Amino acid sequence: MRKTIIVSNRLPVKMMEQDGEYVLQASEGGLATGLGSIYREGNNIWIGWPGQEISDSKEQEKITAQLRQMNLMPVFLTEEEINNFYEGFSNETLWPVFHYMSVYARYEQVYWDAYYQVNKKFRDIVLSVAEQGDTIWVQDYQLLLLPGMIRAEMPEISIGFFQHIPFPSFELFRLIPWRAEILEGMLGADLMGFHTFDDTRYFLEAVNRLLSAKTTANVVNYNDRAIVVETFPMGIDDKKYGELGQDPQVLSNIQQLKDTFKTEKMILSIDRLDYSKGILQRLHAFELLLQMYPEYVGKVVLYMIVVPSRDSVPQYKQLREDIDRKVGHINAKFRTLSWHPVQYFYRSFPMEMLSALYNFADICLVTPMRDGMNLVSKEYVASRNNNDGVLILSEMAGASKELIDAIIVNPNNIGSIMTAIMEAVNMPLDDQQRRMKAMRQVVSKFNIHHWVKLFMDRLQEVNTMQQNMLAR
Ligand code: F6P
Known about the structure:
By secondary structure, the protein is α/β, with parallel strands linked by helices.
C-alpha cells in the first residue's frame, strides 16, 4: 500500500526527562494538528527529532519502539549535531538571513558540514522506509538539502517541500556561501510551497540568478525536471479555538481575568523568544504611549508572554536580558500602587490559559520584524466568538496579506504602533465587529485542513502532469 511520509526537524511529540525516565509530550502546534489526519492513517509515518539528546542505544531502541506504535520514527541527534546543525546552521545562519537580520548570521564551515551530515542522516532514515509510489512531504528550513538527497536515490518518488519561514530577497540570500547547494537541494522536490507570493517570487528569482535555471511563470526547469513553485498560506484549526471558548476550565480562567482586570483594557502579546518577533520595539511603543499620553496610565495593561526558545544561541540570551531590563524599566517608571503596566511572563502557558487570554484581551498586538506567517494573530481571531476585539498586525508577517482588516503597522515605526494602540483602545464596537467578522471568515475558510488538502492535491496533480510529460 502506498504511504505518505512526513519529515520535519521536530516530531509532533517531544521526549521529556522526568525522574530519570523519558516521557512523551504531545505538541499542540498547528502543523501537528493539521498533519495529524495524515500521519496517523494506515502505514503513513512522520520522521523527525524527538527534541532531546538521547545517546544510550538501549534507550533509543525503547523510544523507537514506543514511537513506532504511533506512526512516528525518531532521528536521534548527538550533542554536537544539536550544536552545529540545529543551533548552528539552522538557527545562527539560515534563521537570521531568512528573517532579514543578516548581521546576526555566522557562516561557519563546521555548521555547514553538520547541516549536510544531518540532512543525510534524515535521508537514510527516509530511505529505510520509502518505497516506489510513496509520497514524501518535507517541512522547513532545517531540511533544505533533503529533497535533493532523496531525489538522487529515488528519481521517481513524489516529493513536496514547504517552507514555514520567509524566503529572503536575492540580495540577502546571496550572502550565504552555500547558496547554490541549498537551492539545488530544494529543487529535488516536485512541488515547493511558501506562505506568501513574495517568498515564492524571491525563491524563483534566486533560482534564476544563481543557478541560471530557466523559470517560466511558477515552473522551474532544472536538470530535465519541471518543479512547480506556489503559494500556500498556512491556516490554523479555527474550530478548536472557537470551541475552547466554551471549555469549563477556560471559562473559569476568563472569570479570573475579569476579576483581576476590572477596569483596564488588556493588550495581549504572545511570542516565542526571538529577535524576529519585535518584542523590544513593542515595549518601546507601549512606553512611548504612557509617556506621551499619561491619561492611559492605569487604563491599559500589556500582558506579555514570552515562551523560552533556543536559549543557548547567544542573540536569544541577550534578547532575554534586554526584555527583562526594558520591562523592569517601564514598570518602575509608570507603576502605581494598584497598577502594573506590563505583566510579563517568561514561560509557556497551557492551552486553557492561552484560550482564556485570547478570549479576554481587548487587543492583540502582533508586531514581528519579519515572520513567515504568524499563527498567534489567527488564533486570536479564531477565538473571538463575539466578533469583538482588535488585532494590530505587522505588515512584515505573512498573515498581514490575508488579515487585511487588522490595523496594519510597520514594526520599525514605533510612533505608528503607539497610534495603532490608541486607535484600538478607542475603536467603536461596530467597527471592531465589522473587521473581526471579515477576518474570522478568512481564518475559517482557509484553515489548516484546507491548507493540507490544497498542498497534497496539488502535489498529486503535479506528479500526474510530470508523468504525462514523460509519456509524450
Ligand atoms: O517557524 C518555524 C519554526 O521552526 C516552527 O515550526 C517552530 O514552531 C518554531 O520555529 C520553533 O522552532 P524550534 O523550537 O524547533 O527551534
